[in-house]
Structure formats: C-alpha cells, structure tokens
Amino acid sequence: MSIWKFLGLDPKKLGGGAKPASAAETETVRKIVASLDALEPEQARFIAAFAYLLTRVAHADHHLSAEEAATIERIVREHGALSEAQAVLVAQVAKTQNLLFSGTENFLVAREFTRIASHEQKLHLIDCLYAVCGADRSISVVEDNEINKIANELKLDHADFIAVRLRHRDHLAVLKK
C-alpha cells in the first residue's frame, strides 16, 4: 500500500488546484511521489500515521502556526529519513487530511500507530507532539489535553506520559504566570 492510498489520496489528482502546475513543478511532484511509493509499505504507514498525529495535535487549538508547521516538516524529515521536499509533501498531505477528516480519522490513525509502533516509538511520538506544540513557546491547555488523549489512545501508561510531559513543562501555558 502506498502512502497516498493510506492517506486516502490519489497522487494523480493532487495538482487539481485553481492554477495549473508547470511541467517542471509537475515533474518534481512526480519524482517525490515515486520516491515515497518506493518506501516499504510498513515504513510508509508509520510515516503517514506519525505525520497525521503531529498535525492532529497542532490543529487541536484550531491554529497551526508557522513555527508548528516548520517543526512538523523537520520532524517528519528526520524521523522518516526523507528529503526536505518529501517531508514537505508528507506534512502537507497530513495537514490536509486532518482538516478534512479529523472527526472520523483521529482514532483510526492512532489505533493504526498503536498497532505498528513499539513502546519506545510511541513515547518518542509523544515527545515530538510536545515539540510541535511548543514550537511557538507555548503549549495551550487544549494542545496538552489532546496529547494526553493521544497517549491514552496509544495505550501508554500515565506515568510514561507524565515523564515525557515534564520535559516540556517550561512551555505549558497552564504553568505560566
């Protein structure tokens, strides 16, 4: 299964915006899509779910700052071993999917991530979720609650969640004056 199918998109239809893409832009997108399709299916599923959960928590407060978007792209690039262009594309697709289908997909994607990720990978995801929300130096109560909800969906112990949360306490809005 390609990352596109997992995310519910057809890569042939991605350029369907108001303005037609140039041949060079289209060829670049095709190369990125082909390189993503070359990923092992399990790796593609992992990256897709990981990116979706990052965008889910960033949108929890109904605002995705430029800092949060840049952090998502950086984390996806580093943890997915992707090129910058691939990471930007994956992050953008995840953001779009989250905006369109968050009500129905949030739990399903978390359940898929629970199935394919190790305990350490789940803890690392929680750390990355806090990094995304803290990119603008403030983790709102809404974002913190969403991360807690995701940790529960991932079947993590509360003590594990709190241990990760403590590393980001300087940015928790609830603890600021």
3D architecture notes:
The protein has a single domain (3-10, 23-175), classed as TerB-like (Orthogonal Bundle), CATH 1.10.3680.10. By secondary structure, it is an all-alpha fold. Helices cover 69% and strands 0% of the residues. It starts with a helix and ends in an 11-residue tail after the last helix. It contains 8 helices and no strands. The protein is globular.
Total domain count: 1
Based on secondary structure, the structural category is: mainly alpha
Alpha-carbon Rg, integer: 16 Å
How many distinct helices? 8
Sheet bearing the most strands, described?
Answer: none
* Spatial separation of the terminal alpha carbons: 48 Å
- The top-level CATH class is Mainly Alpha
User: Helix share of residues?
Assistant: 55-70%
How would you sum up the global shape? globular
The CATH homologous superfamily name equals TerB-like
Mean of pLDDT = 84
Beta fraction: under 5%
**Secondary-structure arrangement, i.e. CATH architecture:** Orthogonal Bundle
Q: What fold name stands as the CATH topology?
A: TerB-like
Number of strands: 0
* SSE arrangement, N to C: HHHHHHHH
Poorly predicted regions are 14-19
